[in-house]
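Q: what sequence does this backbone want?
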């Protein structure tokens, strides 16, 4: 046996134990099988009795609730006393009763019929009357299921065929209404056999199960047998057995089946009614023949031995295979395979061993990986890391150490110690204080080191000893970080802080710094004390609200009212002596590095004098505005007075030039033309003044009509040619022949071109020229350009020539008369016509004024002509 492999020994052991166990179980089952089956059947029979008791009582309760509901809806004829008049009601009442009865029978198939009884037990109405019991006078036995439930008849007292199905009639009282105070009963006939037959029980019990149900007041029990082949003698014995049990006072239900002769029986009671219910089963149904039991035992033992063989084979293989895998894994691990793992196939001791092996391999692999990572981390660290012996010689340094100290090869550091890198000014401190502290265990602080090229640097050093398992052998470490740049930044930051602190102190405005709760934490002493009269120590710790003027109508805003953007307000502040001043206050939010609100900064400037000056300035502005309005009214009046006499003078001059009152000499005609030019100039000036006053008052309006822009230009060209001849100028006209139709005010358009032509003449050079060109920009716009060869307009004046009363300072500005409002009026008139006015000028060369107007397209002109033709025809 010892020479067998461990797998074979495990297999034989498991197989032997299994065979012995199965054989022992088979013998026990053979010896005790009949008794075990009988006890099991008795327990199931007891449970079946309890199920029948609960089932019958539960369904009777549901039936009585439905009867009670139908009784509440009972028509009035059910409650009448005179049965002869209402025995067979027709129409809706009877249909209602039949529907109610059908509904109850659909819900409870074991209900055969329903009836309405009077107080004497007579049947007033019935559904399926042939199945309703004959009348039985009260009193009826009360049923404890509902308050008004009654038992009319029990199967033992049912009249009729004794061989028929066991019927029981139950009902509920119906309350009387009106003058009749006697009660009625609504009853239903229950087929107990069908009710019991619906109880769910196992099929092997239901084939031969018998149920006996006892009533109240010593009534004979009713025996309900599922299998109809049971003899009458069996029924009689069951009834006697139930009566003998019921004769005792409150007998307790049997917890398990009892055997009485050829019966196994179990007793239970309906929980609330207390009726005894007995479930019986022939004892022969609970026994198994010994030969049949022997065959079953033999087959069971054979199957068990076969399964034991397979289980033993599987168990031995499952135990040996993991051991083989562990052996192979140990060999792989010994060869340097750090990733070897053995799958865990069980949770027993072998599985725990395998799991422990895997954990050990993983731990060693992780330690190996950590060692490699630490080596890479140390090698690539930005801090310089050095290892020293106890004597101070360098044994290891990473790449950052070479870069920090300025060396490139390890051989250059072979004979160096840490003391060799310390600057001379710091060497005495190093040897006296730093090195002993490193040897004792740990030291941290600043060191002044020297680069290989003698350049000094400041390093933050952490150094100490590394414990060793071997006594007398120790390693020292040093971690160095170059902080030279940080030190320079700190110095610059300190200088900047001192600089801004000096600005804070030297500011002429009062500066108040508060925390997030608006409590003062700092002020600039000279300016704050000069503005508010308080010393710094008198206001630090006080809320900012103490400095506001309480007499102000609305409370001053606190810091919470401001967002992240700075705000500016003019607030009323209070001095220490009680005086109040207006302070222009700028509030800014102070934030931390993470955006959190750290407080508020208020800069207060005393603007009381400036506000008083602004008030005076506003008063002067209002006075000037009134004078300007007075000037406008004066200009409007004087323009009207000047225009009235000039109109008839111009008319007389035109008639004289037309020779209506006689011939004229050349000299007379020349003088009359000069007079006409002067009158036209005055009229233009007067019209400009009138338009200017209308523009200022907003009363300048257009009388728009359809017109040809060519007619306006031709009329204005007459004045241009007259003025040009007087100044010895040449006029060039380049206009298209076709009409240029548009909507506009004829007089306003004439004034636009008269003004532009007049300026082209007035500001021109002697023997110069004026060019008038017209062209289509596109289908809906026409452009007119007036170009002169005058003195031109300086570039800095181009943006101001359209302002009121502005005149260009230049070569001929003093020789040309005018009010300086002509171009301003022209621009507004062009804008009212939805046009555009442009100017280009070159100093010493001349100027070009261009006016672009929207025109009417061909389709619009044709449409207008058709409308006019239609109006003429209608007229």
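A:
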């Amino acid at each position: 046996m010892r020479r067998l492999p461990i797998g074979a020994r495990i297999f034989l052991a498991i197989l032997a134990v299994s065979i012995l166990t199965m054989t022992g179980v088979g013998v026990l089952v053979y010896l005790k099988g009949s008794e075990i089956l009988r006890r099991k059947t008795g327990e199931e029979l007891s449970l079946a009795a309890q199920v029948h008791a609960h089932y019958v009582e539960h369904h009777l309760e549901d039936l009585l609730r439905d009867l009670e509901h139908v009784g509440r809806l009972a028509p009035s004829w059910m409650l009448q006393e005179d049965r002869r008049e209402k025995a067979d009601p027709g129409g809706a009442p009877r249909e209602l009763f039949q529907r109610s009865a059908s509904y109850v029978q659909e819900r409870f198939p074991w209900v055969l019929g329903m009836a309405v009884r009077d107080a004497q037990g007579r049947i007033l109405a019935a559904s399926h009357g042939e199945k309703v019991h004959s009348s039985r006078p009260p009193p009826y036995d009360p049923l404890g299921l509902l308050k008004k439930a009654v038992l009319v008849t029990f199967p033992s007292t049912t009249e009729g065929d004794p061989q028929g199905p066991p019927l029981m009639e139950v009902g509920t009282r119906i309350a009387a209404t009106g003058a009749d105070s006697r009660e009625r009963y609504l009853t239903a006939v229950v087929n107990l056999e069908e009710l019991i037959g619906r109880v769910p029980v196992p099929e092997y019990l239901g084939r031969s199960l018998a149920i006996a149900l006892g009533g109240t007041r010593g009534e004979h029990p009713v025996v309900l047998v599922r299998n109809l082949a049971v003899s009458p003698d069996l029924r009689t014995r069951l009834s006697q057995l139930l009566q003998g049990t019921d004769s005792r006072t409150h007998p307790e239900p049997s917890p398990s089946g009892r055997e009485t002769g050829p019966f196994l029986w179990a007793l239970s009671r309906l929980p609330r009614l207390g009726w005894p219910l007995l479930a019986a089963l022939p004892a022969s149904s609970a026994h198994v023949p010994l030969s049949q039991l022997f065959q079953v035992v033999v087959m069971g033992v054979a199957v068990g031995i076969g399964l034991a063989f397979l289980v033993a084979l599987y168990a031995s293989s499952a135990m040996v295979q993991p051991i083989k895998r562990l052996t192979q894994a140990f060999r792989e691990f010994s060869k340097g395979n750090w990733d070897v793992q053995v799958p865990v196939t069980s949770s027993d001791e072998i599985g725990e061993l395998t799991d422990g092996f895997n954990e050990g391999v993983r731990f060693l692999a992780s330690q190996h990986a950590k060692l490699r990572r630490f080596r890479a981390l140390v090698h690539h660290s930005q801090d310089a890391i050095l290892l020293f012996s106890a004597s101070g010689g360098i044994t290891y340094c990473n790449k950052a150490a070479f870069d920090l100290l300025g060396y490139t090869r390890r051989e250059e550091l072979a004979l160096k110690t840490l003391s060799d890198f310390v600057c001379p000014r710091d060497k005495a401190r190093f040897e006296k204080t730093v090195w002993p502290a490193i040897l004792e265990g740990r030291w941290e602080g600043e060191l002044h080191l020297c680069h290989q090229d003698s350049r000094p640097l400041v390093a933050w050093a952490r150094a100490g000893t590394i414990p060793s398992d071997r006594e007398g052998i120790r390693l020292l470490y040093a971690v160095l970080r170059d902080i030279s740049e940080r030190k320079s930044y700190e110095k610059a930051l300190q200088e900047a802080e001192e600089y801004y602190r000096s600005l804070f102190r030297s500011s002429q405005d009062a500066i108040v710094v508060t925390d997030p709760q608006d409590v003062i934490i700092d002020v600039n002493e000279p300016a704050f004390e000069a503005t508010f009269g308080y010393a710094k120590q008198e206001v630090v710790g006080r809320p900012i609200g103490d400095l506001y003027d309480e007499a102000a109508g609305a409370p001053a805003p606190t810091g919470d009212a401001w967002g992240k953007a700075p705000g500016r307000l003019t607030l009323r502040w209070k001095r220490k002596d009680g005086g109040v001043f207006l302070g222009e206050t700028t509030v800014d939010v102070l934030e931390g590095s993470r955006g959190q609100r750290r407080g508020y900064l208020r800069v207060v400037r005393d603007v009381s004098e400036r506000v008083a000056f602004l008030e005076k300035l506003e008063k002067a502005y209002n006075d000037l505005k009134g004078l300007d309005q007075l000037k406008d009214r004066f200009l409007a009046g004087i323009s009207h007075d000047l225009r009235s006499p000039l109109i008839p003078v111009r008319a007389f001059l035109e008639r004289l030039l037309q020779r209506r009152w006689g011939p004229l000499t050349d000299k007379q005609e020349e003088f009359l033309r000069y007079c006409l030019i002067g009158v036209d100039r005055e009229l233009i000036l007067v019209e400009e003044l009138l338009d200017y006053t209308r523009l200022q008052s907003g009363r300048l309006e257009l009388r728009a009509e359809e017109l040809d822009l060519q007619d306006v230009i031709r009329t204005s060209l007459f004045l241009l040619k007259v003025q040009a001849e007087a100044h010895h100028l040449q006029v060039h006209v380049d206009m298209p022949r076709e009409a240029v139709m548009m909507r506009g005010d004829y007089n306003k358009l004439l004034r636009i071109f008269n003004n532009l032509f007049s300026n082209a003449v007035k500001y021109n050079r002697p023997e110069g020229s004026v060019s008038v060109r017209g062209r289509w920009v596109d289908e809906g716009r026409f452009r007119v350009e007036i170009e002169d060869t005058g003195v031109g307009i300086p570039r800095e004046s181009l943006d101001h020539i359209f302002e009121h009363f502005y005149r260009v300072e230049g070569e001929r500005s003093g020789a040309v008369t005018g009010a300086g409002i002509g171009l301003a009026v022209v621009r507004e008139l062009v804008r009212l016509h939805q046009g555009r006015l442009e100017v280009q000028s070159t100093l010493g060369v001349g100027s070009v004024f261009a006016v672009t107007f929207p025109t009417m397209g061909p389709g619009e002109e044709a449409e207008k002509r058709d409308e006019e033709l239609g109006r003429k025809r209608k007229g």
